[in-house]
Every structure is written in structure tokens, then in C-alpha cells.
Amino acid sequence: MIKGNQLPKYFSLVAQSESREPCLSSAALTLIFAAVVVTMPAAKLFDQPASYIPLHTILEFISIAISVMVFSLCWNIRKEPMAGKLPAIGGVFLSVAVIDMLHTLSYEGMPPLVTPASVEKAIGFWLYARIISILGLLVFAFSRQQASAGYAEKSLLLNLLVSAGIAYIGLYHQDLMPRTFVPNAGLTAFKIRMEYGLAFLYLVAAWKFWQRSKEDTQASFGWLAAACWVLALSGIFFTLYQNASDLMNVMGHIYKSIGYLIVYRAIFVVGVHYPYKKLAATLASQHERELFYKTLASVNPVGIFRSDKEGNYIYANANWSKIAGLPVNQALDSGWKQGIYPADRLRVEQQWNTAVSQARPFSLEYRFKKPNGEIAWVYGQTAAIKNETDEILGYVGTITDITRRKATEEEIHRLAYYDSLTQLPNRSMMIDRISQSLASRQRNKIYGAILFIDLDNFKQINATRGHTVGDRLLIEVGNRLRSCVRASDSVARLGGDEFVVLLEDLGQNHEQAAMKAGKTAERILEALNSPYQLAEQEYIGSSCIGISLFIDGNETPEDLLRRSDTAMYRAKSNGRNILCFFEPAMQKALEEHATLESWMRTALREHEFRLYYQVQVDHNRQPIGAEALIRWKHPIQGFIYTPDFINVAEESELIVAIGQWVLETGCAQIKAWESNPAMRSLSLSINVSARQFGRPDFVETIKAVIARSAIASEKLKLEMTEGLLIHDVDDTVAKMTQLKSIGVQFSMDDFGTGHSSLNYLKRLPLSQLKIDQSFVRDITVDANDAAIVKTIIRMGQTLQMNVIAEGVETEEQLRFLKENGCTVFQGYLFGKPLPLEEFERLIASCNERRLVDRKSNAPG
């Protein structure tokens, strides 16, 4: 069997084999020619010329038949690509057949053909036929241009015209040609020279064909060279005979027929032999390709199938069966549809039928359900098989297993839109669902609601029990939230301990919608208040919920989340475990909060903050220190109320940056006062926020500022609120102890208003307690405040701590504090918070008064 990749080699071998055959044939005929010429130069076969007529007629009819065969074959292959100009020879040999027929019928002894038969007439037609044949062969041998359209037909017409002209001349005007035969004398010199000339031209054509056979082994030029060689030998035979019936004449006719037969062989090779061999090789190659494609289909990782034009399977490979989970014999015809996942079957059939009816490719992702229940996702695609007239014969297609890809896509979708811990929708998914809900609100005008839920003290759970326990709590919260809402509602975790519930279809009445949302929120609060079993320990938590109703589709999801978040923070500010509905005033406060925060960032960048100083005095009213108090003068708004911007800063990280600025500015001022005799003895109290104190690098930051400022650390006093104590007490004690060891002093600010206990006070390395001004204000008129102040003073004395009272504004207050043992005071009675220059003038005037008092009290 011939393989496709061996075709060029095969044709090369065939060509080499057939190129030797013309050589061998030519050599054999040449040897016969030589043997006849040498051994029997004048052998006479017939005594009477009339006896030779039958043999002559037979020989000529053989050559005529071969010429007609050459024409017939050339005419039939004229449109074949390999034929080239070869079909033009057909017209030449048809003309040769016609003239040879005239030669045969004009032979002496034959009945008259228009004019009486004669040797001269017969020889004339003989020469005409030889001239036409050699001229045709020479033109073909030397012509290299491609055959144009209609070339064979034009050649036939030309040769028929030439034949008609020659017939006319040979029958009616033979006398125009030179004599070729003289009775009793034989051939004339003209006839012999013509035969030699024709033989020479045949040899020239043979040489040219032989040269071209080396260039193109598939065009049968070798056979044409052999034909011309034999025809040349034929011509030489005709120069050697003595009479028309001797052996040389007969051999000439035989060699002429053989030459014509070789021409037929050459055309047969090109027109029939090669095409049939090529067809056989093509069929073998096609068979091999079929085997190749079947093998390829069997090892291909995709499932391959073929169907008829109605979509019924007629073939499916093993991998199709493996992917779809359906045996091949069950998949044939329309059985393949039964393996499709029921939910996808109608969609696949519709798509497939549409593709078949519209004669277009089919591609779709769908599922197969295997007998074991396993679901396989596939990507199926088909293409139509069409014939030359664009008629659809069937379809070929593939199915590719995309189950893993689908699983990966689902995992990516889950990670992108679902919380990995609670498996609830995340912020992105919730925003998408809120957007869809808003779109539906525009159509039906039905209320919806957003519930923003925040767990109370969740950070404390993480800090005290660990993140694993905190994660378990969040998972349980998610489960409880799902149990509290309807299937049409959505629950999401935004992050941390924040959850959001989207309530749908609450009705068209505002009061009823608020009532339904409120009841759901109460149900959630109750569920979240129930005890949790976490790591074999019971935990009871609480939460706050902010609720925002919506009916207008013009809001954005971010607007609704922001409103419910604002309401949630209002709930937190009002206590724990409560719910709060959003009100427009909350939004205004939120916007003001955001504006103030933005202004503060600018203030830090543009150095708009200033430090004011309020004097602290001893029982003799002599300055012993000061408290640094931050003030902010906005370039447009003027002075901003300090508690307002401090509260906003506390809720953001800005308090850390502001606190750092106060610390660095205050220490720099302590350093500056060292060169001022009136100021160098003062200590400076600086407030520290809980956020600032809670930073891991707090101790290193204080030490670095002290080192950069090059101040005596004893001059720095850090004031901290009782709120620090509700966090990590051990961490607080450790940080204070480290700073205390280098001389930094600590004062408990606003003492009595927070969560302090005697146990905490004993552990903290405090040097001072500051009585909050809210107790000092009414000590002369309120017995409770007076009792609290006395208790704080005695507590400080017991713990050997200095006690300072702030907010002292009257002499009566000062007298009460002194009488009960308080020794340090701060308040408007001694001086308001002042800018640096005014504060320094105040201290200078106090020093001047002290000097005057000393002089007035000096003896004599």
C-alpha cells in the first residue's frame, strides 16, 4: 500500500523505471534495424507489385488506426491539467491519418481515387504525412509556453485545413511537386534527400525530447524521443529500398507503425497511465488518512462525533462516551440527547435544532448526567460538512470536558462574591442585590429596608479568647441571621463584625414597612442575644442595628448602606443591644463629620493647629506647671469648638497624628523654656488618647521625642483618661512603668467619671490624680459633689499621689479644696488657656508679684 507521505518518492521511482523503457525499446529496434540492413539489404518479398498491395494496405491501415487512436486519446485528455500542449499532437495525427488514407488509396494497383492511382501520387501523400508529423512533433518539442484555452481545438482546426489543402494538391496538382520515383529507375534524388532530411528532423526532435525528459520525468518526453528515433529509422529504411515490394519498404512501414504506437504510448502514460496511478495512490493515501483520523479520534482527549444532516449521531469516539457517560451504541441516532442533564435538555435541543435549520455552527455549554449521578459540564460545538454545491451532508463536532473549569469559575465567583468564613454574600454581592432591589422599586413602588448589624465588643472576644473563637461566633451569627429572615431576603457579611440584611417587599405604606422592618430587627436582636457555646464556654453577646427604609429607586446602594450605618452608630451611642431608624438629621451630622475630618487633614498639612497653655498653681498660687491644650483656628470658620473636632479625630486615626504633633510641639516648648529663668521650673502636662497609647510603639515614640528635644523627662507629664483601663490593663501598666523609669510622670485625667477601681489605681504608676471639673463646679452647694471630692483627695493621699483640681473658678471652691487637703489647682481663677506669648507674660507677672510679696514681708 502506498502511503501519503511516499507519493513523491513513488512517482519518482515510476518515472525512473519508465525512463529506461524508451531507451531499451529504442536500442532493441536499432539493433533490429542494423541486423536487417546488414544481412538482407536487397531482399525481395514479392515478384509482382500487385502482390504487395494487400500487405501494404494492412500496414497502412495499422498506422492509420494508431494515428486515430492518438487523436482520440489526445482529444479526451485535452482538459486534464497534466496534458499541457500534448493534446495538440492529436490534431497533427488526425491529419496524418487522413493523408495516410489518401496515400493508401492512391497506391499503384488501387482503384482510382478522383484521379488514377500511381506511385508518384502515393509517394507524394506519403511525404506530406511525414512532413506534417515531424513539424507537429518539432513544434511540441521546442514549445515551452503553457497551453492557452482552446489550444487543442485550434490545433485540430488548423490541421484539418492543412489536410484539405494537401488532399487538393495531391489529387489535382501533383505535377507541382518534384518527381520522386522513376519507373525502372527507382527513387529520385529528391525523394532520397527528403527521406534523409525527414530522418534528420526526427533525430533533432528525438534529441530535444530526450533533453526535456531530464527536466520533467512525468511528461513522457522519453517515450516521444524514442518515437522520433524509431520514425527516423523508418525514414532511413525508405531510402534503401529498390522497389516497392522489397524488405526495406516493408520494414519502413513497420517502423512507422511502431513509431506511431510509441507516440500513443507516450500520450497514454500522461493521459491514462499516470492519472490512474495517481488515483490509486490517492485512494491509498485517502485510506491511510481515514485510518489516521480514526486513530486520532480514538486518542484525542475531546469527544468527537458525526451526525447526519438531521442531527442524528452516526459516529462517536470512545472519549465522547467517557466524557458524556453514555455508551456509544446508546448515543447513536437521537440517543445522545437522553444523556443530557434534564434541566439543560430543552435548551440544547432548541439550540441544536436552530443551528440545523439555519445551517450554522452550533456551540454551547451544557451538562451531561452520568449513570452514577455525576454531573459533567461540556463545551459542545459543531460544523457543517458540505459538498461542492454547498449542500449540507451532515455535521462533525466535539465535546470538551470543562467540569474542572466550571468548578474553578464557581470557586472564583464564590471568592469574589461570598465571604469565605460564613459563606454569606460579601459586600460586592450585597451591593449587586441592593442595585437590583432599587431597580424593582422604580417599577412597583414597594418599600424595602437595609439593616446594618454590628456586634458589641467583638474585638474584646478576639483579644481575650482568640481569633478561632471569634470566627466561630461570626459563623453562628451568620446562621442565626439567616434563620430570622425570609427566603426572599438577603444576608451578607461586609467584614469584621458587620452584617447587612436586605428586606424586600415590605408594602407600600411607610408605617407598615417600618413596623415590619422593626419586628425583623427585634427578632434578630433576640436571636443574637441568646447564649453561644464557644469552645466549651458560654458567651452572651449583644448587637446594635441601624435601619434605613427605601422606596425611591434614585438612591445608590452606597447611600443606603451609609444611612443604615449612621443609624447603627446612633444606636451604639445610645447604649447597647438596641435598634435605631435612620433620620435625615443623622445624615446631616454624618456629612458634617466628614467635612470636619477633611478640614482636620488640611489643618495638619497647613499647620493650622496651635497650643494654648493653662497655668497650674500650688496652694500659694505660685505657678508650678501648665497643661497644653490644642486649639484650631480655621482660616474661614474661625475657632472650631475643641470637643467637636477632638471627638471626630478620636473616631478616626487622625487623633494619632494630632497627638504626635501636640507631643512634639509641647516637648520643643519645654526645651525652649529651659533658657527662660521664669519658665524653666514649670512641668508640662500633655493629654494622650487611648488610640495613641494603644499603639505598640508608644513607648519608643515617647522616648524618641524626648531624645530629639533633649529635655529633662521629669518635666513631661502625660495625662491619660480612665477609659484606657477598660482595655488591656497589663499592657497599660507595662508601658507606664517603662516610661516612669526614665522620669516621665503620669496623671489620671477626669478622675471619678470613668471606670477606675482602687485595684487599678494600686497597680498604675501614677504620680497625680486630677479631679474632674464637673465635681469641682458645685462642691460649695452640692453635698454629693463635696463628698466625692473629699473621697478623691483622701484616696490620693492614701496612695501617696498628688491631687490636682481642675475647673477652679471661685475663691469659695479654692478654700474648700485647701481645707480638705488639695494642694494643686487649675482653673479660670488663676488663668484661662492662653497663647504662648500671653501665657509667658502671665508667668512673668506672677513671678513679679511673688518678688514684691517677698520684699514686703521681709523684716525691717
Keywords:
single chain, 860 residues, alpha/beta, nine-stranded mixed beta sheet, five-stranded antiparallel beta sheet, 28 helices, 23 strands, 16% strand
- Give a quick account of the main beta sheet: strands, pairing sense, barrel closure: 9 strands, mixed
Rg for CA atoms = 60 Å
Helical content (DSSP H or I, runs of 4+): 55-70%
**Mean residue pLDDT:** 83
Class from helix and strand fractions = alpha/beta
Shape: rod-shaped
Number of strands: 23
Low-confidence segments, given as residue ranges, are: 1-17
Number of helices: 28
Strand proportion: 15-25%
**Distance between the ends:** 145 Å
Report on the architecture of this protein.
The protein has 860 residues and is an alpha/beta fold. It is 56% helix and 16% strand. Strands 15, 16, 17, 18, 19, 20, 21, 22 and 23 form a 9-stranded mixed beta sheet that branches. The termini are far apart.
Set out the fold topology.
Blueprint: H1 7-39, H2 49-76, H3 88-105, H4 119-142, H5 151-172, E1 181-182, E2 186-187, H6 189-215, H7 221-237, H8 247-299, E3 303-308, E4 313-316, H9 318-324, H10 328-331, H11 342-358, E5 362-369, E6 375-386, E7 392-401, H12 403-417, H13 427-444, E8 448-455, H14 458-465, H15 467-484, E9 490-495, E10 498-503, H16 510-529, E11 532-534, E12 537-539, E13 543-550, H17 557-573, E14 579-581, H18 584-606, E15 609-617, E16 623-634, E17 638-639, H19 642-651, H20 654-673, E18 683-687, H21 690-694, H22 698-709, E19 716-721, H23 729-740, E20 745-751, H24 758-763, E21 768-771, H25 773-776, H26 783-798, E22 802-806, H27 811-819, E23 824-826, H28 836-857
Parallel strand pairs: 13-14, 16-18, 18-19, 19-20, 20-21, 21-22, 22-23
Antiparallel strand pairs: 1-2, 3-4, 3-7, 5-6, 6-7, 8-10, 8-13, 9-10, 11-12, 15-16, 16-17
Helix pairs in contact: 1-7, 1-8, 2-3, 2-8, 3-4, 3-5, 4-5, 4-6, 6-7, 7-8, 14-15, 15-16, 19-20, 20-22, 22-23
